[in-house]
Amino acid sequence: MRIGHGIDVHRVSHEVTRELWLGMVLIPEARGLVGHSDADAATHALCDALLGAANLGDIGRHFPDTDPEFADAPSRRLLEATLELVRAAGYRVLSADITIIAERPRLADFMPAMCSELSSVVGTVVSVKATTAEGLGSLGHVEGIAATAVVLLEENS
Ligand code: MG
How is the beta sheet containing 91-101 ordered, strand by strand? Predict the structure, then answer.
């Protein structure tokens, strides 16, 4: 078995029309995040954890922000591509756990949808949790949203 850890941070956009996507779910009436893709920090952290557990490098190596193919790419595409790499390397996902750090918006109502969306793509239960930064630092001042993830992989026998 192999454990992997991922972290991702994105700045809050000043563009009022930018959508906020977290855990592959659109969060309505919230400022979006700046990024080359859809800037879904939760799903990106999960991808990095998956790649890390399989010793396959990081999300920037496989899906570089210089690649026009991934401009505004939905995080679902990145997650599916990441899972293909992990499976091709001979692993299956046993468990995954994500924590989103967001001062605003309150995400509690969206947790079940995130869990359901992510679990359906990953093929096992993906836990999603959220916390605030207690008003401290840049995350606490709503300058960005961060996420961390851990996963456990098992090598196919
Ligand atoms: Mg990212």
Answer: 2-11, 144-155, 91-101, 126-131
Residue 119: pLDDT band (50, 70, 90) is very high
Instruction: Give pLDDT tens digits for 120-147.
Output: 999 999 999 999 999 999 999 999 999 9
Amino acid at 112: P
Provide the residues around ligand 1 (an ion) whose CB is within 5 A.
8, 44
Crossing angle between the packed helical segments 41-53 and 75-88, to the nearest 10 degrees:
10
Structural domain containing residue 44: 2-155
Which CATH number characterizes residue 123's domain? 3.30.1330.50
Domains held by the chain: number: 1
Q: How far is the CA of 154 from the centre of ligand 1 (A)?
A: 25
